[in-house]
């Protein structure tokens, strides 16, 4: 949730000064405090990250799980000027190692997974969705542990996300941008 009706536009330089024992995100220059994830969130995250990690062993792309900072620059912003920090997405797949620096990744990842909760749903489905689409993230997943539902958005030729592919806990997801990667949701939602 945003803190207040602040007028200040926060940047990555500000983010680095936030207390290290607090979790924050900055979206469109507005800071949002994050709450601790539930155990179901953590269980889903570990299972997904494990499957992605197993697939990427020995390949040029890498998978990172929160806590891991993602900074998406606009135009010619320096690192310190970036105001679109989607700090610590749950899972990020990056394929350009040269953009890994400081506390995370400075660029547009290939795939992002957000594990949504009632308190984060608005940001995940609106603000982040629009940011990731505009930035050109090829695939964006919204995972909902409560309903055991996964929505997969894939960037189309018109640089917009198409209708989501929807999956339940009994499905396997064939990842479109990595054709031989299949994520088994029965193990992801095994709780």
UniProtKB/TrEMBL annotation:
InterPro entries: Nuclease_put_TT1808 (IPR012296), Restrct_endonuc-II-like (IPR011335), Uma2 (IPR008538). Residues 13-184 form the Putative restriction endonuclease domain. It comes from the Bacteria. PANTHER family: GLR1098 PROTEIN (PTHR36558), RESTRICTION ENDONUCLEASE DOMAIN-CONTAINING PROTEIN-RELATED (PTHR36558:SF1). This is Putative restriction endonuclease domain-containing protein. It comes from Desulfosporosinus metallidurans.
């Amino acid at each position: 949730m945003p803190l207040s009706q602040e007028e200040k536009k926060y940047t990555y330089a500000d983010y680095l000064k936030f207390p290290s024992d607090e979790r924050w995100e900055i979206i469109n220059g507005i800071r949002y405090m994050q709450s601790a994830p539930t155990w179901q969130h953590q269980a889903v995250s570990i299972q997904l990250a494990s499957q992605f990690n197993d697939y990427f062993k020995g390949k040029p792309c890498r998978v990172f799980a929160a806590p891991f900072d993602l900074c998406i620059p606009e135009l010619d912003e320096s690192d310190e000027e970036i105001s679109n920090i989607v700090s610590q997405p749950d899972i990020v797949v990056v394929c350009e190692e040269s953009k890994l620096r400081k506390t995370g990744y400075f660029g547009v990842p290939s795939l992002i997974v957000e594990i949504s909760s009632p308190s984060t749903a608005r940001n995940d489905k609106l603000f982040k969705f629009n940011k990731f689409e505009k930035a050109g993230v090829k695939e964006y997943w919204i995972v909902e542990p409560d309903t055991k539902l996964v929505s997969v958005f894939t960037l189309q030729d018109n640089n917009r996300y198409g209708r989501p592919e929807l999956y339940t806990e009994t499905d396997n997801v064939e990842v479109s941008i990595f054709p031989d990667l299949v994520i088994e949701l029965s193990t992801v939602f095994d709780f």
